[in-house]
Amino acid sequence: MFARIRAAQSVLRWTVQRSYASIPTKKKQEKVTSLLKYFKKTKRRKDLTDPTHPSNVSFLEICQFLKDYSRQTHANVTDADIHNPYEIVKAFLPFQRRHQVIPSVKVWGTTHTGDGLAIIPKSMYASEYADSESLFGKYTVLMIPKTTVGDKVKVLLKMHHEFYAEGELIEVLNKGKRESKRNNRMILCEHFQECNGCQLQMLSYPEQLLFKQNIIQTAYKLFYPNLRTDHELGAVNPSPLQYSYRTKLTPHFEVRDGKCTKLGFQHVNNRGKIDVEYCPIATVEINDKLGQARNNYLKGPPMKQLTLRQSIRVDNDTGEFYETALEGQSKVITEKIEDFIYQFDSNCFFQNNNSILPSLLDYIRYHMKQLPDSVENVVDTYCGVGFFGIALSNFHDNLKVFGIEISESSIKYANHNMKLNGLYPERTKFILGDASNIFGNEEFKKSGIEGKGSVVIVDPSRKGSDELFLKQLLQFEPDMIVYVSCNVFTQARDLANFEQLQGTNLKYKVDEVVGFDFFPQTKHVESVAILKKIDLCT
């Protein structure tokens, strides 16, 4: 485990323990933890001890929120003042809670998940669940989906966690007022208030980009506070399409009495599925296919979900192609990005907003051109179906590309795409293997690729990279590293660890960190970090 991770864990434990110190008995502390342990796990992240786990990030964001709130209101609220005792946590567990409405509360901040942050005195509602004297000077932080800074809202109190409570939006009381960033005229989806797919439709697009830049800045403030760059941190490049951009959709069915009764997405307040006939962020072709699926499957036998993906079809007689959408998990998808064609199984990973991919590629090429020495090799770690390696292969005629991927199906398509695009096998190679050991891989060693003259693309999953990979990357010494991430918190953690691994003799500098808005209207942001060797920096 990295030293910085251990340090962050230590800080997290100290803060939590300090908060727990006010609880009368250790037994009650253990009860609260036991009650909530199941709810902390997420679909993608079960590594609860990692500081970048969503529950830990949320706690750190709440601590920062309390500082900001105290500064604005001249209060002095700390994390010790917001802990939810066992009696209150138990009273508001799912299926046990009573209806408790707070008639008016102001939203002061937002989380990286797009939820509004508010704060209320515990004495406002909790006297029937806990001793009144113990509530004096204590507060509850609320996380309220579909709200933004400046909103005054009526909320229903729901499940209480250790340091916050979930709030369900009932009504916005100050719609159209200047103190709120909200503009409901921006909302295009009739299901926005219920569907958990989008979080930001009530914000203007410039406000959405600022929100996402703040996420990037927060991540680096928390996990790489020593970072210094000569550029503005986290400026977000806009998407050419703000709606009708999403090339993949996975709607789920709701089944009752043995029949499919709804097809759509999860309710933001965990009330089953929202029946969706049309999704504004999906492409026109996918929405057409969604309508066909509803006609084919609703009222039919039980099913779990659909996979709908954008694809192109080529007219073999004319060579022309047209856009379409395919349904199913075993279909071969075809996409064209710039001058290259990519094919892959519908289960394979591929970016879901192809309108912004040329901008991302141009950004990487720009930095490759700024290097003082010619780029001879592109090493595409976590290469998937070969997107980055193939897309950058035309940087010049003699460029070598080497990619590695742990998914057998993805690497099969990477090699297929190499042939499909007419790339020379002596200059392009994709292999099956673990990116963590790419530089020790025998096939990579045989390639003769050296760090000098190389650019390494790092594009891991949400959990980020690991120490073994970072150590090998440092030993390989490429001229430039491009770290593309769908989780800026793990990216910031990894780059901080990468600096620490270098010790006092730093070889690399983070030249720039920017965002790309792959998912307008949602909380998600893709972050790209450029690292260059210090002796090559201009």
Description:
There is one protein chain. By secondary structure, this protein is of the alpha/beta class. The chain has three domains: 3-170, Beta Barrel (OB fold (Dihydrolipoamide Acetyltransferase, E2P)), CATH 2.40.50.140; 212-241 and 338-343 and 349-536, Vaccinia Virus protein VP39 (Rossmann fold); 248-336, no CATH class. Helices cover 30% and strands 24% of the residues. The protein has 13 helices and 22 strands. The protein has helices at 3-20, 26-40, 54-73, 86-91, 132-135, 205-223, 284-297, 357-370, 387-391, 408-420, 442-447, 467-476, 488-502; strands spanning 100-106, 109-110, 116-121, 139-144, 152-160, 165-172, 236-237, 248-249, 252-256, 259-266, 273-275, 308-314, 321-327, 332-337, 340-345, 377-381, 400-405, 428-432, 454-458, 480-485, 508-516, 526-533. The strands form five sheets. An eight-stranded mixed sheet has the order 7-21-22-20-19-16-17-18, sandwiched between helices. A six-stranded mixed sheet has the order 1-5-6-4-3-2. A hairpin with a 5-residue loop joins strand 2 and strand 3. Helix 6 packs parallel to helix 13 and helix 12 crosses helix 13 (488-502). It starts with a helix and ends in a 5-residue tail after the last strand.
Task: Give a brief outline of the structure.
With 538 residues, the chain is an alpha/beta fold.
Separation, N- and C-terminal Cα atoms = 34 Å
Assigned CATH architecture of the largest domain: 3-Layer(aba) Sandwich
Helix content: 25-40%
CATH class of the largest domain: Alpha Beta
Strand neighbour order, sheet with most strands: 7-21-22-20-19-16-17-18
- Ranges where pLDDT stays below 50 over 5 or more residues in a row are 8-25
Integer count of domains: 3
Shape category: globular
How many helical elements? 13
Rg, Cα atoms, Å: 25 Å
- Largest sheet composition: 8 strands, mixed
- Briefly note the CATH topology name of the largest domain: Rossmann fold
Q: Count every beta strand, where a strand is a DSSP E run of 2 or more residues.
A: 22
